[in-house]
């Protein structure tokens, strides 16, 4: 029987774990790795902790995303949250809930990519859980831990006069999703957008660097610039005044692949995982201004109030 | 419209989180709580980390278990893993994946019990994730973190001559499940078994105490005495020789509610979350001997090799 045909129902949990554990690197930061009741991690005096999930049919469809793609996206979502606190990610734990009819290959493809990307980022895979689920269900919950080299950068520290800035791109993931949906798109920009939608990256080291450079507030763009920006604005009790001239480079590059939808991708596109922050002084290298912090509330574009559209998980 | 009728589809993620966060206690161990990109926890030099999931239709059915029951069980499963390393749990993160048709009441019932039990155990709820899921899906992934006051107690340290011991009961959860299935059972023992199946507890402080008393190996009984015992035996390269006379008290008490099935409940019943450990010297208070560690492999009962039956998540 070809390997492709093996399903989770045909292997024991122990046999599957024996195939998976070697895919995860250990290291000095993890005195006890996966396989016991719990892992033991070397930690500093403050640990950053966050969790994020992906559910098949909601956060991905198998037609577009492989197990490796899901691993890459789930990892980035969580590591971006650690970076957005000014933290350096150190470890992840992964829970997989799967219909026993899911192929072993999907799980190994997922685990292989997770292990490789975690190792590349210097992050230990500290264990996880395999759980069977009803027909059709496939879901992944990742928890990421990190250390804080300096001060935690919250969402609430932005003050009028600060500069609003981004590290990374805007709208690429949303444009990639649009291209996948329409089945159109050719060329380097289209390929880049699709790649960023399927396997987003986040500027990991920019988080602690921003913290060291005095960032006053920070988060990652996971649900869209307007929605995440409005969260930062609300937490800080300020208004973010965005300037369309400063967004033009992002819009222009996307116009060639999604036409008039480019601005909306930039404003409302989620799953981008760039870092959005506010700074009082000069911007660190790699960051570019998008506007300024004013008194008031919400997010404006060229002075016009914007609805905080973007992704809401349970919206009807 | 009565509150009962509200579903997740009818509330925004932000509004739901605003109802949930006040249910979770903070504390000095958590300088930054839920609501930002990540929480910040005060940690020692070594952090224990583990994750475990519950999926509706596999790990519980709504007919028997409320949201509060699921919270209690999910919490105990994870805290038991921390205790079984010799750790003291400090924080949990919770990811909820839910069909938008799930009622808001279920989620609040879950969150309220989670918050109350976590507070009782001195454990911070450090955040989580709410994710929508396809029709019918409801799943919970909990990650627990803890500190290690002493040495981590692994599964691999048992040596011939050690005493095998348990802290807590055996077979109650399995007997409770049997009673729920058969719709029978009356009296205090039956009620206790059903309660332990729906809302299991774990002797949390016994974990670090066992570590301080020189436990050589430890785990919690989550998949059954034989299956978990065989894991400890395999990791340590030894045989666990159980003595039926020492199991008799557990069997006798269950016989009145499940008759001849009592021994099987004690040997193979999962979700008990008592602690199973091996000791070289005297047993600490609260522990009782079940047998001894011999040279060899596997688990025996009165010298007879036992199949490591019990729960395997993906077994067909």
Task: Give a summary of the structure in a few sentences.
The first copy, chain A, has 316 residues and is of the alpha+beta class. Helices cover 33% and strands 24% of the residues of chain A.
Structure notes:
The structure is a homodimer of 316-residue chains. Chain A is of the alpha+beta class. Chain A has 2 domains: 133 residues, PurM-like, N-terminal domain (60s Ribosomal Protein L30, Chain: A, 2-Layer Sandwich); 144 residues, Alpha-Beta Complex (Phosphoribosyl-aminoimidazole Synthetase, Chain A, domain 2), CATH 3.90.650.10. The first copy, chain A, has a 7-stranded mixed sheet. In chain A, helix 2 packs parallel to helix 3, helix 4 packs across helix 9 and helix 8 packs across helix 9. The longest helix of chain A has 17 residues. The radius of gyration of chain A is 20 Å and the shape is globular. Chains A and B meet through helix 1, strand 1, strand 2, helix 2 and strand 3 of A and helix 1, strand 1, strand 2, helix 2 and strand 3 of B. Strand 2 of chain A pairs antiparallel with strand 1 of chain B.
Tell me about the biggest sheet of chain A?
Answer: 7 strands, mixed
Within CATH, the superfamily of the largest domain in chain A carries the name PurM-like C-terminal domain
β-strand number of chain A: 12
CA-CA gap between termini of chain A = 44 Å
* Count of all domains of chain A: 2
**What is the number of helices of chain A?**
9
In the CATH hierarchy, the architecture of the largest domain in chain A is Alpha-Beta Complex
Q: What form of chain A results from the Cα inertia axes?
A: globular
The topology string of helices and strands of chain A comes to HEEHEHEEEHHHEHEHHEEEE
Q: Give the strand order of the largest sheet of chain A, numbering strands 1, 2, ... along the chain.
A: 7-9-6-10-8-11-12
Residues in helices of chain A, as a percent range? 25-40%
**Level-1 CATH class name of the largest domain in chain A:** Alpha Beta
Give the overall pLDDT of chain A as a whole number: 93
As a percent range, the share of strand residues of chain A is 15-25%
Quaternary assembly: homodimer
């Amino acid at each position: 029987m070809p390997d492709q045909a093996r399903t989770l129902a045909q292997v024991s949990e122990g046999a599957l774990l024996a195939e998976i554990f070697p895919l995860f690197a250990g290291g000095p930061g993890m005195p006890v790795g996966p396989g016991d009741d719990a892992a033991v991690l070397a930690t500093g005096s403050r640990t950053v902790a966050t969790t994020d999930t992906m559910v098949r049919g909601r956060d991905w469809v198998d037609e577009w995303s492989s197990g490796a793609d899901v691993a890459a996206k789930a990892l980035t979502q969580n590591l971006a949250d650690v970076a957005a606190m000014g933290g350096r990610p150190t470890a992840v734990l992964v829970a997989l809930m799967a219909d026993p009819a899911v192929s072993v290959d999907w799980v190994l493809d997922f685990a292989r990519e997770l292990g490789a990307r975690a190792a590349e980022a210097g992050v230990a895979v500290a264990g996880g859980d395999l759980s069977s689920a009803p027909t059709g269900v496939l879901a992944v919950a990742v928890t990421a831990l990190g250390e804080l080299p300096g001060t935690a950068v919250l969402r609430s520290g932005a003050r009028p006069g600060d500069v609003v800035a981004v590290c990374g791109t805007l709208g690429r993931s949303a444009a990639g999703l649009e291209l996948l949906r329409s089945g159109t798109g050719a060329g380097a920009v289209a390929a880049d957008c699709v790649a960023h939608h399927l396997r987003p990256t986040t500027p990991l080291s920019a988080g602690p660097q921003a913290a060291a450079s005095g960032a006053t507030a920070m988060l990652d763009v996971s649900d869209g610039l307007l929605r995440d920006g409005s969260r930062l604005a609300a937490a800080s009790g300020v208004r973010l005044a965005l300037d369309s001239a400063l967004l033009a480079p992002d819009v222009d590059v996307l116009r060639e692949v999604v036409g008039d939808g480019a601005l909306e991708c930039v404003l409302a596109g989620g799953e981008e995982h760039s870092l959005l922050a506010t700074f009082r002084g000069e911007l660190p290298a790699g960051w570019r201004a998008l506007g300024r912090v004013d008194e008031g509330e919400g997010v404006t574009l060229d002075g016009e109030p914007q609805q905080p559209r973007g992704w809401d998980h349970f919206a009807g």
